[in-house]
Amino acid sequence: MNLSIIIPFFNEQSRFSKTVKYIRDFLDTQKFFDDIELIFVDDGSTDNTRGLIDEFAKQISIKTIAYKKNMGKGYAVRQGMMAAKSDYALFLDADMSTEPEEIEKFMAEIKKGTPVIIGSRRSKGSQVLVSQSLHRTMMGMIFTMLANLIMGMRVPDFTCGFKCFSRRILFLAKLKGLEIATVPVAWKNDSVTTVRLGRDAIESFFDLIKIRWNYVLGRYN
Questions:
Q1: How does strand 35-43 pair with strand 180-184?
Q2: What is the distance between the alpha carbons of residues 12 and 51, in angstroms, rounded to a whole number?
Q3: What's 2-131+157-191's CATH class?
């Protein structure tokens, strides 16, 4: 079984060393996968993130995707997913709010062949070690509620940045009747965030509307 790990980066210079430490530790200790493909996506960083990625790529095999204009996290994740070649593709945030080792909790579903596995901070057994601010928590809950309403789904935590796919899109997987598993994970907030709460939330909301509209028009048939 092979795994691709996709990490989107935007101006992560200050904590890049933290990211690569967690990734190195995971690669040194994991025993679940025969091969791991690393995909780093530089989402138009304006600091030295790209330079740090290039330096790290001299030490370890990485597939790098980069572009000059910042397109947002969703776009960056899509680019990584489309480039992934492994049996499963996992994306996680550069701040390591959910550590790569949490993939162990996904293994039962991966071995079953479940095509969509979602980490959740709001399921029984999950651990929130360091909480977000109240307004970010509320925004996440509201977005999850709207996403479930628009998509006709029951996913308890849309915004947790720890999701694993057999390279299929979440909504399209549901349309095809594919199983979606939610797995509780340990998560800790990093107060230094590059997520633009207002802009990113609005862009994500309109992406959901676009997906639903495409479905109504029969473009996924």
A1: unpaired
A2: 11
A3: alpha beta
More confident of the two residues 202 and 64: 64
> Domain spans of the chain?
2-131+157-191
Angle between helices 197-216 and 134-151 (to 10 degrees): 10
pLDDT tens readout for residues 95-119: 998 899 999 999 999 999 898 898 8
Do residues 36 and 3 make contact, with C-beta atoms less than 8 angstroms apart?
yes
99 exposure class (CB count in 10 Å sphere: 0-12, 13-18, 19+)? middle
Cα dihedral across residues 162, 168, 170, 174: positive or negative = negative
Rounded distance between C-alpha atoms, residue 148 and residue 159, angstroms = 12
Residue indicated by tokens 């101006």: 11
CB 114 within 8 A of CB 179: yes
Q: Return the structure tokens found at 141.
A: 């809950």
Rounded to a whole number, what is the largest CA-CA distance in the chain?
Answer: 48
Beta pairing class for 162-165 and 116-120: antiparallel
Q: How far is CA 188 from CA 46, 82, 97, 133, 191, in A?
A: 26, 28, 5, 12, 10
CA distance 9 to 174: 28
d(CA 97, CA 140): 15
- Residue 66, H or E segment: strand 63-67
